[in-house]
Design a protein that fits this description.
The complex is a heterodimer of chains A (593) and B (301). Chain A has an eight-stranded mixed β-sheet, with helices on both faces. In chain A, helix 5 (147-158) runs antiparallel to helix 6 and helix 9 runs parallel beside helix 10. Helices cover 36% and strands 21% of the residues of chain A. Chain A is of the alpha/beta class. Helix content of chain B is 31%, strand content 15%. Chain B contains ten helices and eight strands. Chain B has helices at residues 33-46, 82-92, 104-110, 112-121, 166-173, 186-198, 220-226, 240-247, 268-271, 290-299, and strands spanning 54-58, 73-76, 97-103, 126-131, 177-182, 203-208, 227-229, 254-261. In chain B, strands 2-1-3-4-6-5-8-7 form an eight-stranded mixed β-sheet, sandwiched between helices. In chain B, helix 8 (240-247) links the parallel strand 7 and strand 8. The longest helix of chain B is centred in the N-terminal third of the chain and has 14 residues, at 33-46. Classes of the chains: A alpha/beta (593), B alpha/beta (301). At the A-B interface, strand 7, helix 7, strand 8, helix 8 and helix 9 of A face strand 2, helix 2, helix 4 and helix 10 of B.
């Protein structure tokens, strides 16, 4: 009988080049087609071959928000995986490994070791990747899925490589499947009946798709991990979707080309990571003073400088807050998960168009390179598109003022090519008519007028954006505060705490600028014990929160080892702080890759 | 000084002065840039271009104030980044005539990377550099095109670095129309600008535009004594080797004129399949169709 709550975590570890991505993708497809929710995190290194890769996947019949804590199944493609990761096994777990080359580790818990001889089961195949296929057969047998779904998936995945390859792999998978049925015990967690199929995407896919749905027609980039996936999605879909995609010489060119394209009226976007974003910063101020709407995405990785290119961190908040010289208007949003990242792009574009300013989306590797299931009905591919105040009909009057000093601060835009509205947009301070003030005489009255005009656009902007909500019981013992990508892991920590008798609620902030000072202040003032959770060392968001609210919190949980939080890291920190009166907790990362 | 009223720009120019912008240049009296400004106005009038179909883009520097003095759409952007802005604008609206203006520091110094790659891509832009071999707006420092030994505020004992050669660089990087002119010969200059605008591809016109305030080495007489026009030398503009050889000559003779012209190489816009339907990127439909939306989702299942 299927268990009510099916929550299964499976990891595959091996060296780069051992082909972990393929079985990972096949499993994701199989389980999400079966209707299960899916969440995957791939820990890897900046190396194309060699190094160590550890892909954690988690499936459940209920919504899941992180890659979890323990493993139910571990597939070791090399000895390294056995040696490093056995400790993650939960009680009743299963470890699958090639006994030709890997020796079993010592296990204290009740874990079933499943040695398979790849040589014997493959009939001595010289194909080095065949062990992955055999392992897939073993996995399917032990989780209790029908072999035919695997045969079909393998055929689909491999058919372009020819029938011989398909046959070889299906035979190997079947050998693994049958061997496992005869020799090993099925995992005690029984897969539930199939439900509504889910779609799968990465956070980078979601960001790119958000652009496509939000009307982006010009996408420009310089490759940089972990944001390159956005470029890949865009490049692959560009022609079909009529999007101009350019890869150019550096991020400085990217940032400025985007403004040039946006000035003509195209929705223009780019994505990079912290290092590339550093090069883009001068352009962001330029877009702001010229009042040209465009969107910049910064997908954070562990810094500073080159830092740890394939690891995650929330370390760029102050860079983004301080991006570009001067005192100016721009929007900053930190999506809380992949679907939110998707929805954020059209949302921020509409705001940028309405308020004629640049927008910055700050996210991180955990979201961008994570793979997630999503209910296809939740993806709105035809979101509202609001281009703001744009003049579309020509005029012979010639009195147009591009930067007209209006009450709202918003001056209707005329786009190049429209007769009768010729004007200059300048990065120099200018007057209403676009003439730079240093061309006449530097005029403090005009300067003040234009600063205030631009600032007025943002006067009530916070009311146009949904404030953050407190999730969970209002009078909880502890309130966990985070921003951006930690939303999911905090949510799981909250439910684990509840099971352990600790009531917790959570506040996850998405909008950095504008900041919902009133809403956040009210939540914190009503909280009994507040703990801030950040994937960085210095508490960047905490310092920002203080600057915007003047409030303090009771404690902090911070992680800055390159790996994302797992739910128990937060649970352990909360418990320690509540019982031992401590205020600072740094969890230890168990997965060493 | 009274605040000038908002000047009404001419919609349909009939004379050169109709291409005047909202304000008059604040350049020093005698600055070479005046000659370039007038030559571009004349070229646009003779090509019968309308101000609303032109986008002038500049960076930062004395000469980069150019768009404000010219009747067209304009972008006065960041130091060194004019070609990046212009490429974005041209690719998003290929129907605009995009003319980029700036100085030697802006284009060959801080903007050198973009100069290289815009030439390589052969973007259909006209790039006019007013080369005065000095940083003027910052009151006289050495520039990439300053001569060896030149004394400036930042090289008080003489420049020890070699000159950048914009002509050979543009040719070697793939530009398809490469010319040099002299701002005191506006007829020759405006003729080259006309050809450059008409050329489909990246046209680079490097103009000697002497700085009367900070560069006393390379003044108008310096160039007058040395300049010889390629048009008088039977130069073959399809021969890149001969073009480079002539561009490197910098002694008693300095050549101006059209060094190199490649009419075969297609520009980026014509190689970009998204523009095959002729619709400008900025005018393409923004909403995804039902069918496209379904395809996207089906690939995720």
């Amino acid at each position: 009988m299927p268990s009510e709550n099916y929550d299964f975590a499976l990891a595959i570890g091996g060296a780069a080049g051992q082909g972990i991505a393929t079985p990972g993708n096949i499993l994701a497809r199989l389980f999400t087609r079966h209707g299960l929710h899916f969440n995957a995190y791939n820990a890897y290194q900046s190396i194309v071959r060699g190094g160590h890769i550890f892909l954690t996947t988690r499936f459940s019949n209920e919504e899941i928000y992180s890659h979890g804590d323990n493993l139910d199944m571990l597939v070791c493609l090399n000895q390294d995986t056995m040696d490093r990761h056995l400790g993650l096994m939960g009680d009743g777990g299963v470890v699958i490994f090639n006994s030709d080359s890997i020796s079993a580790g010592e296990m204290e818990k009740n874990v079933q070791l499943c040695p398979i001889s790849v040589k014997a089961l493959s009939g001595g195949s010289s194909n080095k990747l065949i062990q992955n296929t055999i392992a897939l057969g073993v996995i399917l047998a032990l989780v209790g899925m029908d072999f035919e779904v695997l045969a079909k998936a393998l055929t689909q995945q491999l058919q372009r490589k020819g029938q011989q390859i398909v046959d070889e792999n299906v035979a190997a998978a079947r050998a693994g499947y049958e061997y496992a049925k005869e020799n090993f015990q099925a995992h005690t967690k029984t897969i539930p009946d199939s439900g509504k199929p889910k779609a799968i995407w990465t956070g980078n896919d979601a960001l790119a798709m958000g652009g496509a749905a939000g009307g982006v027609k010009f996408y420009c980039a310089y490759p940089m991990s972990p944001a390159t996936g956005v470029l890949h999605w865009m490049a692959k879909n560009a022609r079909e979707l009529d999007i101009m995609v350019r890869q150019v010489e550096d991020e400085i060119a990217v940032a400025n080309m985007v403004i040039g394209a946006a000035h003509t009226g195209a929705r223009a976007m780019c994505a990079t990571s912290g290092g590339g974003f550093a090069l883009m910063t001068e352009a962001i101020g330029a877009a702001s003073i010229m009042e040209i709407p465009c969107v910049y995405i910064n997908v954070m990785r562990a810094g500073p400088s080159t830092g740890v290119p394939t690891k995650t961190e929330q370390g760029d908040l102050w860079q983004v807050l301080g991006a570009s010289q001067g005192d100016f208007e721009r929007l900053i949003a930190a999506p809380i998960d992949a679907l939110d990242a998707y929805n954020t792009i059209p949302e921020i574009f509409n705001l940028c168009d309405r308020y004629q300013c640049p927008g910055i989306v700050i996210t991180d590797l955990l979201i961008s390179e994570g793979t997630f299931s999503v209910d296809p009905d939740n993806i709105n591919l035809q979101p509202e598109i609001d281009r703001g105040e744009v003049i579309t009909t020509g005029s012979n009057d010639g009195s147009y003022l591009r930067y007209k000093n209006t009450e709202s601060g918003i001056s209707p835009r005329a786009l190049p090519g429209l007769e009768g509205y010729a004007h200059v947009v300048a990065t120099d301070e200018h007057d209403e008519n676009g003439v730079i003030i240093s061309d006449e005489y530097t005029d403090p009255i005009k300067r003040r007028r234009m600063v205030e005009k631009r600032a007025r656009k943002f006067a009530n902007i916070v009311d146009k954006i949904a404030p953050p909500q407190l999730e969970g019981p209002e009078d909880a013992e502890v309130t966990l505060i985070g921003w951006g990508s930690t939303y999911g892991v905090i949510k799981e920590a909250v439910s684990q705490l509840a099971k352990q008798g600790i009531t917790a609620n959570q506040l996850s902030v998405k909008w950095i600028v504008p900041f919902h000072t009133e809403a956040v202040t009210n939540i914190i003032n009503n909280a009994r014990h507040t703990i801030m959770i950040e994937n960085n060392y210095s508490g960047q968001f905490f310092r920002y929160l203080r600057s915007e609210t003047g409030l303090n919190v009771n404690g902090h949980i911070r992680k800055y080892d390159g790996e994302p939080f797992m739910p128990h890291h937060i649970v352990d920190g909360v418990k320690e702080q509540l019982t031992e009166n401590t205020t600072h907790y740094v969890p230890t990362q168990e997965i060493i890759v | 000084m009274n605040m000038p009223a908002n000047k009404i720009l001419v919609i349909d120019p009939e004379k050169v002065s109709d291409f005047k912008g909202k304000v008059n240049p604040d350049w020093c009296p005698g600055c070479g840039d005046f000659g370039v400004l007038n030559s571009l106005r004349k070229a646009c009038l003779e090509l019968e271009l309308k101000p609303h179909d032109i986008l002038t883009v500049s960076g930062i520097g004395c000469s980069s104030n150019f768009p404000g003095y010219f009747n067209s759409y304009g972008m006065h952007t960041l130091h060194g980044r004019s070609l990046a802005f212009a490429t974005g604008a041209k690719m998003a609206n290929h129907k605009l005539n995009v003319i980029v203006t700036g100085g030697d520091g802006d284009g060959y110094g801080i903007g050198g990377n973009h100069f290289t790659h815009t030439a390589r891509r052969n973007v259909d832009l006209t790039y006019i550099v007013m080369d005065n071999q000095i940083y003027g707006l910052t009151t006289g420092q050495v520039s990439p095109t300053s001569s060896l030994g030149m004394k400036t505020k930042s090289t008080p004992f003489g420049n020890v670095e070699f000159q950048f050669n914009p002509i050979t660089s543009a040719i070697m990087n793939g530009a398809t129309f490469v010319a040099r002119a002299f701002s005191s010969d506006p007829k020759h200059l405006s003729d080259l600008i006309k050809q450059g605008i008409a050329h489909k591809g990246f046209s680079h016109i490097s103009v000697f535009s002497p700085c009367v305030t900070y560069n006393h080495d390379n003044d108008v007489p310096f160039f007058r004594e040395r300049i010889r026009k390629l048009e008088d030398e039977n130069h073959d503009t399809s021969d890149w080797k001969s073009a480079c050889e002539k561009a490197l000559i910098w002694d008693d003779t300095i050549y101006t004129g059209l060094f190199f012209h490649n009419k075969e190489k297609t520009d980026l816009g014509h190689r970009e399949p998204v523009l095959d339907d002729g619709v400008a990127v900025c005018q393409k439909q923004t909403e995804l169709s039902e069918g496209r939306a379904k395809t996207i989702i089906s690939r995720m299942m």
